[in-house]
Amino acid sequence: MTKILAFTNNKGGTGKSTLCCNSAHLVSRTGAKVLVIDMTSQTTCTSLFLGQDNGLQEADTVLAFLKKRPDRHIEDLIYESAKGLDIVPAHVSMAEAVSQLSAMQMGKEGVLRRELERIKHLYDYVFIDSPGDLNELTANALIPADQVLIPTRLNRTDFQCTETTIRFIQEAEEFIGSRHIRVIVNMLDDRYLPGGIWEHSHTGELFKQAQQIFGDVLSSVTIPDSADIRTAFDRGLTVTEYRPNELAAKRMQELVNCEVLGG
Asked: In the β-sheet with 180-185, what is the strand arrangement from edge to edge?
């Protein structure tokens, strides 16, 4: 049975694309058949898995079926990455899809779900990278998902946006059924965690607030603020490819084991 995971938050800069790309790559290394669907105008997953200079036009990307081109369906837009997984790429003009979907009278939130029904049997896992906003694109990413992973940084703005995202999902569950939600604290130095030397600092106290606010949906795995992750992306690599024995790569593997393979 295919497992579909969406990475989302009502805010940019929380690390959705980073976690989506690295998690998908790690799962593909287990031998599972993995599809990534990039729905962001930043096209981070697309650039990582197909290269910066991929030459893709709008008609070659997820925009084609989101804009209801009759000659383009999801199976026409799947590309094989050299990293051992498949991807439906995004385009920098993704905002056009929001306008197109907004103009639809019926069924605009379920376009991706209907397309996925055509091909999801071919995959063990589908990873969806959604935009940092709560709009029709985000709804399209969330509706087919079994599990939603919400990265957050330790600041009150991110907490508020994460709470808004959770409410958005919970309100939709009345119509689409329940979703397994996990909040992941991202870009955190371990020294701020309970038992760390900076536990009682402002950031350490914010982590305790996150535990109180999000309770059982907060993942036990935190992802460090690591130059290795940023450098890896600059070099067209996942952190596991770049520095497999460093903390960031090990923590990504722990996240996958706990929240994806075991979630």
From this structure: 79-80, 86-88, 34-38, 125-129, 3-7, 147-152, 180-185
pTM of the entire structure? Answer: 0.93
pLDDT in tens, 137-159: 888 999 999 999 999 999 999 99
pLDDT, tens only, 177-191: 778 999 999 999 888
Angle at 243 between CA 237 and CA 246, to 5 degrees: 140
Q: Between the CA of residue 132 and those of 40, 73, 168, 236, what are the distances in Å?
A: 8, 25, 13, 22
Share of the chain above pLDDT 70, in %: 94
CB 142 within 8 A of CB 173: no
- Residue type at 61 in one-letter notation: T
Amino acid at 105: Q
Name the DSSP letter for residue 104: -
User: Distance between CA atoms of 254 and 263, rounded to whole angstroms?
Assistant: 12
Residue among 9, 29, 42 at smallest CA distance from 233: 42
d(CA 116, CA 75): 9
Kindly list the structural domains of the chain, giving each domain's residue range(s) and its CATH number in brackets, ordered by start. Answer: 3-261 (3.40.50.300)
CA distance linking residue 53 with residue 55, whole number of Å:
6
